[in-house]
């Protein structure tokens, strides 16, 4: 069955028996989701980038395609990325196993401290808006793998090995894509690599429709990611939606491809040429869904304001110079879930 944008939670009582984590959290974000007048187009418009070609003799052509996709769509799919299928399947299996563990095992990782190395975020009810956000996610640092591995779950026993292998492979894709993105902006190939530091993973678990007394169930509400880019790997259950041309579009999973999208930091660094992608996830009534988001972020002192080369008479700086630390600290203060949190760093107040 095709996923629906709004799920009347009362119509679909809990079927995924293992997922009873309590929904006690209050909404940490203040944005109202953009639900009215939603017009979801079918998929079919996802730009597809061939990574093998990027590393071959037609590199400059593929870089143009990447630049165009970042500018016009804010996202693209990458095929032939080189992450072995086995590592992807192991990662997805491990993710499912983790979220099928009994509550007490998973809830050990629950934390409201965004600075903790690892934390489990459960679904929550936003009673003011009558919305239940059903996503459960395990979020943790993962680069370099050896530095963080010992703090990851040891249950299921495959967790550390499978997640470590997947993360290391994704890192390679990340670096190659960031090099191409730098070049697409006319910057030195290593412009972004030079400021790149860590890698943060969110294992997202969307239970098949769960019971809630609230009207609407969401997977994850409309947001942008506070990253340079995000690399999202989805299982075969659709759920991701993005805003393109002022319309919501489904980005259905393509076999063996990952989705790359522009985050807030790239929006600032590119002087607003590449816009941070607004996206959300919806729930599926029949099937649980798993996705693995890999967010990459710069070092604390990195300047993430517009690259000097991208600022000139015809292109005034949209943002001031600011560091990632300043952005990160403000992010928890302003409690905004979209790239509007960058407005604090605008060069001129509008
Ligand atoms: C995220 C996210 C979407 C999805 O983890 O930031 O937007 O489809 N995930 O799971
Ligand atoms: Ni996201």
Percent strand equals 15-25%
Largest beta sheet: strand ordering: 3-4-15-12-17-9-8-5
Bound compounds, please?
N-oxalylglycine, nickel (II) ion
Arithmetic mean of pLDDT? 86
**CATH class bucket:** Mainly Beta
The CATH superfamily label reads B-lactam Antibiotic, Isopenicillin N Synthase, Chain
Euclidean distance between termini CA atoms = 45 Å
Rg of Cα set? 19 Å
CATH topological fold name = Jelly Rolls
The overall number of domains is: 1
Low-pLDDT residue spans: 1-38
Approximate helicity band: 10-25%
Count of extended strands: 17
> Looking at the structure, what is the overall shape?
globular
Tally of contiguous helical segments? 8
In N-to-C order, the SSE pattern is EEEHHEHHEEEEHHEEEEEEEHEEH
Largest sheet composition? 8 strands, mixed
* Secondary structural class: alpha+beta
CATH architecture descriptor: Sandwich
Give a description of the structure.
- It comes from Populus deltoides.
- The model is unreliable at 1-38 (pLDDT under 50).
- This protein has one domain (7-345): B-lactam Antibiotic, Isopenicillin N Synthase, Chain (Jelly Rolls).
- The radius of gyration is 19 Å and the shape is globular.
- The chain has 350 residues and is α+β, with helices and mostly antiparallel strands.
- 24% of the residues lie in helices and 23% in strands.
- Helix 3 (85-99) packs across helix 6 (159-184).
- It contains eight helices and 17 strands.
- The longest helix is centred in the middle third of the chain and has 26 residues, at 159-184.
- The structure holds N-oxalylglycine (OGA) and nickel (II) ion (NI).
- The site of N-oxalylglycine (OGA) has 12 residues, from strand 9, strand 12, strand 16 and strand 17.
């Amino acid at each position: 069955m095709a996923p629906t944008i709004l799920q009347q939670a009362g119509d679909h009582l809990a079927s995924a028996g293992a997922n009873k984590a309590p929904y006690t959290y209050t909404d940490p974000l203040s944005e109202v989701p953009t639900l009215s007048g939603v017009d979801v187009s079918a998929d079919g418009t996802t730009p597809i980038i061939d990574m093998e070609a990027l590393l071959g003799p037609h590199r400059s052509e593929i870089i143009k395609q990447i630049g165009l996709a970042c500018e016009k769509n804010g996202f693209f799919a990458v095929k032939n990325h080189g992450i072995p299928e086995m590592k992807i399947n192991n990662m997805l299996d491990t993710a499912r196993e983790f979220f099928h563990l009994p509550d007490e095992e998973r809830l050990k990782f629950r934390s409201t401290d965004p600075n903790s190395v690892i934390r489990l975020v459960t679904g929550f009810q936003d009673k003011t808006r009558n919305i239940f956000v059903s996503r459960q996610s395990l979020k943790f640092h993962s680069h370099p793998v050896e530095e963080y591995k010992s703090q990851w779950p040891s249950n299921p026993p495959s967790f550390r090995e499978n997640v470590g292998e997947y993360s290391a492979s994704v890192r390679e894709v990340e670096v190659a894509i960031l090099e191409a993105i730098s070049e697409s902006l006319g910057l030195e190939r290593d412009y972004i690599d030079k400021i790149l530091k860590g890698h943060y993973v969110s294992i997202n678990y969307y239970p098949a429709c769960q019971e809630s007394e609230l009207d609407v169930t969401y997977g994850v509400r409309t947001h942008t990611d506070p990253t340079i880019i995000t690399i999202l790997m989805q299982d075969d259950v659709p759920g991701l939606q993005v805003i393109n041309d002022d319309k919501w579009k489904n980005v259905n999973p393509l076999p063996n491809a990952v989705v790359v999208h522009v985050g807030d930091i790239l929006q600032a660094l590119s002087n607003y040429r590449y816009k941070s992608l607004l996206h959300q996830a919806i729930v599926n009534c029949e099937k649980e869904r798993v996705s693995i988001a890999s967010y990459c972020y710069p070092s604390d002192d990195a300047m993430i304001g517009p690259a000097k080369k991208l600022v000139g008479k015809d292109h005034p700086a949209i943002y001031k110079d600011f560091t990632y630390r300043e952005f990160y600290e403000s992010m928890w203060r302003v409690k905004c879930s979209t790239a509007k949190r960058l407005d604090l760093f605008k060069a001129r107040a509008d």
